[in-house]
Task: inverse folding
């Protein structure tokens, strides 16, 4: 379809962003995604792409044609529920349908027709729009967030739309989006968590894979290992199978077993879903389990829901030690194997810098009883460096982090 045949409809205005940059990209590698139009040429998605093509003087542009009237009437519901549309096309169709559904909802409200109790204010219209394109409302919201981020910052997020459309996996692309956004948010918060005038000189940060780095580091008195859990789709936790993940856990634990000093305490974080399998690895490697610690983190489950299971509000920490714990002279409830600590949130002073970051007070608890003055402390999966932030100055601490961006975050956070 020629550009002159495409009409700009009354759509919600968005930030056009760097059109010159987008035009240069299209000139170099071509248009990756067609614009979406109605049969009569009304544009419903791809305004920025269209404007960039105009800057290049292109006459023809690839288009995807959708019949909105048929979708609104439900005549194409069967195709929609078979998900014949790519996620980005579903977003475009939903954006065009949303004003109509919202207006219908307002008219029902004015007529005194109350929506079902399961819908919140405005929710009925959004649920109907999502159903029209064959997905749930949360899935549509995630796809929409990906498309909007790509339109606003194509260089940072443009590839996620292609990933989402090619694989059809909205959740995975959305997790990648949130991970990139969290890194950017974390970088903006680093200054609040950094004390450059009080650098933690007893801490060393090493960027690399623990399997490659560990052999030359010697022995340690305290090891706190918050390894990948094998139950999420975060980039660092993406395994082809449970067997592959458990085999990797065994390799990690073999290395850590060799790194134990004559007096050592090892703490290994684990998802409840993997606890039984991981415990069998401990037994296979002849690593004694002194305690099965339970970290209760109820705030992480608040607001969640599941249809076929109870919500988990805890995580396992296997404790394997070959010496006495560092108990204080007076008895306290820190000796119990169940402890409650809130998961850091973005509005906490506990500096949320990593999506699976552990609470600072939790790490302080483990170090208080599992280490002593002069001890060598190791965290082979450092993440945001919380173990280093919790480590007393009279211990030495080595943090290993494979991701260079997070290694930099740790250095800034600790003033290194």
Result:
């Amino acid at each position: 379809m020629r550009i002159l045949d495409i009409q700009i409809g009354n759509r919600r205005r968005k930030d056009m962003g760097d059109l010159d940059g987008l035009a240069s990209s299209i000139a170099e590698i071509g248009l990756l995604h067609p614009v979406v139009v109605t049969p009569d040429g009304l544009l419903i998605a791809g305004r920025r792409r269209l404007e960039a093509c105009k800057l290049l003087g292109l006459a023809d542009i690839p288009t995807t044609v959708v019949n909105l009237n048929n979708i609104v009437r439900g005549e194409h519901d069967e195709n929609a529920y078979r998900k014949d549309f790519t996620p980005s096309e579903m977003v475009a169709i939903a954006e065009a349908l949303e004003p109509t559904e919202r207006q219908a909802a307002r008219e029902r409200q004015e007529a005194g027709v109350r929506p079902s109790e399961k819908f919140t204010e405005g929710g009925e219209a959004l649920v109907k729009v999502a159903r029209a394109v064959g997905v749930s409302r949360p899935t549509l919201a995630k796809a929409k967030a990906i498309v909007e981020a790509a339109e606003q910052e194509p260089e940072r997020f443009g590839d996620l739309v292609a990933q989402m459309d090619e694989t059809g996996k909205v959740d995975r692309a959305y997790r990648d989006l949130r991970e990139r956004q969290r890194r950017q948010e974390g970088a903006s918060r680093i200054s609040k968590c950094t004390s450059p005038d009080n650098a933690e000189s007893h801490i060393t940060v090493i960027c690399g894979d623990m399997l490659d780095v560990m052999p030359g580091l010697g022995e340690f008195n305290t090891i706190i290992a918050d390894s990948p859990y094998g139950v999420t789709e975060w980039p660092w936790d993406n395994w082809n199978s449970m067997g592959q993940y458990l085999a990797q856990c065994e390799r990690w634990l073999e290395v850590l077993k060799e790194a134990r000093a004559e007096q050592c305490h090892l703490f290994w974080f684990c998802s409840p879903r993997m606890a039984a399998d991981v415990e069998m690895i401990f037994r296979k490697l002849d690593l004694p389990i002194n305690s099965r610690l339970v970290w209760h983190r109820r705030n992480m489950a608040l607001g969640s829901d599941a249809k076929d299971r109870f919500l988990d509000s805890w995580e396992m920490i296997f404790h394997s030690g070959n010496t006495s714990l560092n108990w204080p002279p007076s008895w306290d409830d820190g000796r119990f194997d169940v402890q409650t600590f809130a998961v850091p949130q973005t509005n906490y002073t506990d500096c949320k810098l990593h999506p699976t970051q552990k609470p600072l007070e939790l790490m302080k608890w483990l170090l208080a009883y599992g280490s002593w003055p002069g001890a060598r402390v190791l965290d082979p999966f450092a993440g945001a460096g919380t173990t280093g932030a919790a480590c007393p100055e009279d211990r030495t601490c080595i943090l290993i982090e494979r991701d260079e961006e997070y290694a930099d975050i740790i250095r800034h956070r600790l003033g290194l």
